[in-house]
Amino acid sequence: MMLKTYPTSFLLPKRLKLVTAANKRFDPDNRAKASTDTSTSPPSHSHARAHSQTTTLSSSSVDAATLRHNHNHDHTRHRQRQHAATPTPIVPEPPTLTTRSGKMSVAFFPLGYKEAAQQWWTSVSSRQAERDVLSLVPFLREADSDNSPLQDLAKADPFGQRVWRSSMVKLSGKNRALNELSIERIGEQVDDTLVMLHGYGAGLGFFYKNFEPLSRVPGWRVFALDMLGMGNSARPTFKIHAKDPQGKIEEAESWFIDALEEWRKVRNIEKFTLMGHSLGGYLAVSYALKYPGRLNKLILASPAGVPENPYAVNANLPEPDVSTLANEFTQDQESIVRRESVGDNKKFMGAKDKKAAAKTDTTTPPKRNMPSWFVWLWDANVSPFSIVRLTGPLGPRFTSGWTSRRFNHLPGDEKDVLHTYAYSLFRQKGSGEYVLPYLLAPGAYARSPVVNRIQEVGRQPIKPATETSPAIRETGIPIVLMYGENDWMDVAGGFAAEEKIKQRITKVLLHGTEEERTKENGSAKVVVVTKAGHHLYLDNPDEFNAFVLKELEETREQGLRQRASA
């Protein structure tokens, strides 16, 4: 039988309670808590931080060397002023250890105790940490900010004038608001909208290498959202009232996607393209099924919960005991970028018969046994972020166990900024993170697998049937599944989902009415990004952005044709 799930908390020893109290007292977000009652931008503290973007730019009149020099010079002056005011802890390079086999490995928590305590004591607020990440984005200006002539030169935009705004969008109910980043092209009509959703426990700032390239296409407006209860969005108490397993799944999914739908109404967006990473991809599918008629395209970047595991979906069986999840914490991102394979997705991509290969376990990423205590903690809803909070001054050290591997392929300054940003999110009050055991079994296997329902995306009734007319249904939407070649998410599950979608399309073309065949708009494809793992949008942003840009351009062209024929 499945272990009983405890919603949000567990009893703490006295010493841990004291640490928790100390955390609340010294939490910079408690000291300078931003109000979520309005949807206006927070006060401007923008930094001109250096960043040499690796994306390939089209030819322009801007001298790239001049931009880099001016941008770096301005950034250096800012860092000197900031360092003089407050010590800025830098994440050190992970120390290396020699194993008996002669191979090199890194200490799991590379940040020292002293450095961790210093970061805990001097941490900036989560909102400032987010702004520091956004300052890494080239060309884009903050709306209504006062820029110096040097900043104006550094931000000279070869792709048209673009601005970003950060807002808290208030929703109905108590303590419900979504943190939003919007990017607009000044002086252009908005014809299409892209909405980006992050993964479990993450935040919109991790898309910082995608904001500038994905906002180059004329006519597009880009939104990135922190999901309710995560990132810098409001963090209301997470509680599930349903008693049956399916009811718990539906209520847990609705906790997030109802907030997304309410946000859409507040922003008065009729239809949009939705892109979700990991858990954001899983919830994007749930949104498409519950709120039909709102999406032009669905882009799933290494989505969670696609394949089916019989132990995860059957309450009469024990929980899964093996998983690929450990790779999220042990994969070295620099080795992934160098294409030193740690998974078997490349082997799957080389298989001639992918349909047959998808049914075997010989080509999936490596699985590891999960200890019984890990399964118990998962079902007891003890999140990894609760450990960061409970350890107090050691929280940055525990966080470095993930950030040192996840960002070690990036320049040192960016690694430092992202580590600080990640810790500022992980230390916040627990909320949306407690959804995990309701949607996913131990090892990140879905309790309601996407592969069993993705074929119904874009097939839902928009208007119910009446006595005089039949129901009006969707006629399919394009669905793109993207994976890294060294992804610990199984790309075979993506191909199985693609096959399900194509079978549904074939059924319409063979057995549908003439009108249904004419209006059929469904499609499916699987894209594998080279030199990338689970965080493909950050591992190889050039290739990832190029794929997504192509999808956006195709969506825009189709929209223009539809509007012209209407």
UniProtKB/TrEMBL annotation:
For this UniProt entry, what's an example GO CC term? mitochondrial inner membrane
Biased-composition ranges for Low complexity?
Answer: 35-45
The yes or no answer to whether the keyword Acyltransferase is present is no
Q: Annotated region Disordered: where?
A: 27-99
Ranges of compositional bias, category Polar residues: 53-63
Q: Name one Pfam family in it.
A: Abhydrolase_1
Q: Looking at the keywords, is Kinase present?
A: no
| GO MF terms held by the record | lysophosphatidic acid acyltransferase activity; phospholipase A2 activity
Member of which family?
Belongs to the peptidase S33 family. ABHD4/ABHD5 subfamily.
Q: Which InterPro entries match?
A: AB_hydrolase_1, AB_hydrolase_fold
The UniProt regions of compositional bias labelled Basic residues, in chain numbering, are 68-82
- Organism, as annotated: Cercophora scortea
This chain belongs to the protein called Alpha/Beta hydrolase protein
Record's keyword terms, sorted: Hydrolase
